[in-house]
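Now read the record:
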Amino acid sequence: MASHYIGAVNSSAHWWDVVAAQLGTRTMEKVKAVREKNGTPRIPAPSADEIVSRVTFGFWTAVLGRVDKHQAHVIMPAIFPDHPLNARPNEWKDSVKRKKAISFAFEMNDFRNRLAHHEPLRKFGSIKDTSTTPATLVVAASTDLQSTRSRFARLIGLYDEAMSSISATLHRDLLKSSWRTRLTFLLSDRGIERYVNTKYALSDIATTSSYLHQNFARVVKQNAPVRIRRARKAGIFIPE
């Protein structure tokens, strides 16, 4: 953004001031909230890097949504180097295709807000495409466990698409990460059963490695982590 809007040689520049009118008052209020305290400018004034570190995720979704269509074919490929639309950059100028390409950000932001505000995650509202008249239903509201799991699967899919568009290499690494493995398990039948029945809590009672070896199938079926007692140190076995 900095290099495109003001020709900065690095990203440490206040590029948002140049396109303040394009971003709109509500979006710029997020920058103002970092620059001021109780309506008074902070001293020293926050650097561009500090502002970037403190604005919310919602600021960036607003920035994406307000990219000028005449500049989209240059800006969007720089943000999403591996996005499929980059094969024909001018397609970023198409408002319908561009909106569809970045719609994940708005859906992820809504989910992020629910997490941040400690709101219930069991039920999700419907998602509609408002670019049509009348609005078209994209995903129905979740009403039970299965539809809620489907919505979580959708969110993970959106995350995967976003990350693969930013960096295919990074996305491949993330797929192998421990948190992704744990999240996949949590959304599985065994993962849900473990947490619904509070089997995730580790018992203070430790067993031996020989017991685990002799009763491995039974321990796995119980679907709960167990503490393993060893001669010098203890360990934990988590069946997945």
Q: What stands out?
A: The chain has a mean pLDDT of 90.
